[in-house]
Amino acid sequence: MKIIIIGAGVGGASAAIALQRLGHEVVVYDRMRENRPVGAALSLWSNGVKVLNWLGLADEVAALGGRMERMGYRDGLTGEQLCDFSLEPVTARTGQRPYPVARAELQALLMERAGLDRIRLGRRAVAVADDGDRVTVTFEDGSSDTGDLLIGADGARSIVRDHVLRANGLEPVERRYSGYTNYNGIVPADPAIGPLDAWTTSVADGKRCAVMPIGGDRFYFFVDVPQPSGLPSPADPKAPLEDAFGDWNPGVRALLDAIDPAVSLNRVEIWDLDPFHTWTAGRVAILGDAAHNTTPDIGQGACSALEDVFALAIALSTNTNGVEDALRRYVRSRSERAGELVLRARARAHETHAFEPGVTEAWYASLRGTDGAAIIRGIVGNIEGSPIDLGVGAL
């Protein structure tokens, strides 16, 4: 079967690997002209890592990942250590160590393993047509391609999602602004910023500044500033960080001093989608952000896309009532869990960003002196129920 995938990001490239392993002919199209993903890095919790292991990438992903042994919170202003605890229980309870990784490096690995000769860059999809037997995608340059199945992994502004919804008599869905902007990037690891083996987060006034270790002796940093959407980008990219965090604790000060905007600094307004369950129409289906765009507040965005890939591959390889039937079974196995994670991330964003100041102050108080048990339960709770753990859920 010939399968067309729109989008060469984490979800699309992983799907290409999985579907080729099942013996299908796969071709991938993406509007980007080179591998320049949005966002510097991402969290791969055990459910996401297990999918990559299943794809035969265990050693490569472990090499890219940082050794994140602990987690700690600090008062953003004073630097007081609010709590510090081991993340070993996450590994023990889930059966796999988590890995923060550089997004571009993971995507390059996935694209290489999918086969660079099967990936067509600089091709923006503008229309999809499904005649019941074959599906055709048309590109901005007037070219087209036809296959037996089309997968939309084309992100939060997905044109394939719009086709699927309209084909079901529905209007396209609108994204929802979360209320904050995220700044992220990569800097050399430095103990002046935080412990080299820990996920360290400073919090105050509804803002957070966090660093995670990734491979190559580097820190991935991500900082959140509650603010309206649509603000213009300043001439000095670091100016918003100085305004928001310039008087924070010495670790944050060391991070700000280490950031070189010319090397690594991204500014991303954070949006999500209300959960919906119409992911397929005929021979067309969506996955990843196209299906369940989420805020990064529980670190499950990429992992959820990888779960989609696993469930899709299982559905196509084990159901024999036709493509349309297999796609419907894929959606039934995934949309409820994916939607629940979107809502958990949204609730977490509300709790941490002082949209209700009393709620956020109560959260800060809960961090002081905690042994981490409740936080570990939350992390593990987001992982439990993953389809990659055979025998769980609809699969």
From TrEMBL:
Keywords (A to Z) from UniProt: FAD, Flavoprotein, Monooxygenase, NAD, Oxidoreductase, Purine metabolism
GO process annotations (BP): purine nucleobase metabolic process; urate catabolic process
Biological pathway: Purine metabolism; urate degradation
Family: Belongs to the FAD-dependent urate hydroxylase family.
Enzyme Commission code: 1.14.13.113
Pfam families: FAD_binding_3
Cofactor(s) needed for function: FAD
Keyword NAD: yes
Record-linked InterPro entries: FAD-bd, FAD-dep_Monooxygenase_BioMet, FAD/NAD-bd_sf, HpxO
UniProt GO MF annotations: FAD binding; FAD-dependent urate hydroxylase activity; urate oxidase activity
Domain FAD-binding: 2-342
Keyword presence, NAD: yes
Reaction catalysed by this enzyme: urate + NADH + O2 + H(+) = 5-hydroxyisourate + NAD(+) + H2O
Name by which UniProt lists this protein: FAD-dependent urate hydroxylase
